[in-house]
Amino acid sequence: MSFTKMVNILQEINKGKIVFIQCGAFYIAKGRDAVLLSNTLGLKVTCMEERVCKIGIPINSLEKYLKKLEKLKYAYVVYNYNNKENKLTEKAKRNGKENTETNENKNCLLTCRKLKIEDDKYLIALEKFYEERRIDYEG
Question: Among 10, 18, 65, 139, who pairs with 76 as Cys (CB 3.0-4.6 Å)?
Fold first, then answer.
């Protein structure tokens, strides 16, 4: 099973909660959870896979962001994944307001560099257009 599939299953099990999973030195949130965190906490999104955003929070910064989510009364669950033992454990959980975000991506054209923008003058123009206006591209 891939990491992405594991995240998808944990998001389904914890419907409405923001799901964080430790992956190396970061806690990862993906899809609609990443978009919500970007919109509410200003975290930068990158691509996990085509048209699906992720955010990564360094391990030593997680508590700071969980406190911000608690002030906003959001529900979340935090998992640790131990690669050596191939073991998943629940680290923290909080009930609260559900994540109702429906979008899996935010500015996907600008954050997902799977497109060869440097090779296409039309995509370059489009990218500049959206960057100048700071418009979300949901296409």
Answer: 18
